[in-house]
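Predict the 3D structure for this chain.
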Amino acid sequence: MTLARRAVAEGVGTAMLLATIVGSGIMAERLAGGNVALALLANALATGGALVALILTFGPISGAHFNPAVSLVLAANRLFPWRGVPAYVAAQGVGAVLGVWAAHAMFDVGILQFSTKSRPGLPLAWSEGVATFGLILVILSGLRYRAEAVPYSVSAYIVAAYWFTASTSFANPAVTVARSLSNTFAGIDPADAPLFIAAQMVGAAAATVLFGWLVPREQRPASQDSRP
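Done. Predicted structure below.
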């Protein structure tokens, strides 16, 4: 399959993921009657359910990264070609923004907007580092030992991370940028996004280093180093 087709699949999948995150956040806030815990639970469950479906749908086509940090980590681990990273990251970024706009259109709110939801400070940035660190470990270990279970393990982890991290686990640079363009339940002030993204990349790098030490490359099947 051509890189162009795979990149489009990445873009569509990322768009649908963001439409789910933002759309379910809007719906949850409207129906929860001010109960933020209930709204967050609904948002988390909708995101987890969509992730299972989207990874199963697009995994055989593009690998279903939906996340620039994941694409970079897989390339660093020779599970994805470096030449495909720019196209994937671009598709994920564009798809994420289009998904946010799609959610806005569905719920009849302004298409173009910037979030005013403040998520400042080092504790929340640390949370993003922890969330991304865990996500990358789940993905790398899953691909190594139980590839067929990755859609479910990733989704379960994200649902849990909505609750055990103070930041509600964005764990994705494309998601972070796109959510800064939504002044809704799922939004983040654009001023807070750079620190989130920096922490996500540090967490991803730390997970890559740790996994590389835990499972040296010479102990991995040769086929893992030649995946397209």
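The radius of gyration is 17 Å.
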